[in-house]
Structure to design on (98 residues):
């Protein structure tokens, strides 16, 4: 079975979402964010349906957010419990946490 996860980013200015698709599955994972202040985003929700759970989808969503935060110079408020847990697991991200 193909486990390819693809990530897309929907940026609506002051809010947006990362969407994860797994090959051959209709379910999608999502990580939503909103702008709290210029250069500060709040990661407020991560959801991965059980149909695609256990495949690293949530981690890939957070990785995409972190990559964009580094590229864009954002600070991240990890309001979502999963994102907060990922920040604890990755001390190398400490410079990005607001």
């Amino acid at each position: 079975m193909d486990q390819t996860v693809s990530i897309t980013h929907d940026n609506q200015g002051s809010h947006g979402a990362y969407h994860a698709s797994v090959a051959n599955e209709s379910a999608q994972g999502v990580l939503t964010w909103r702008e709290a202040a210029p250069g500060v985003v709040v990661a407020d929700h991560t959801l991965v349906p059980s149909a695609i759970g256990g495949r690293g989808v949530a981690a890939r969503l957070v990785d995409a957010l972190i990559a964009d935060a580094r590229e864009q110079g954002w600070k991240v408020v990890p309001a979502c419990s999963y994102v907060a847990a990922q920040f604890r697991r990755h001390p190398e991200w400490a410079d990005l946490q607001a």
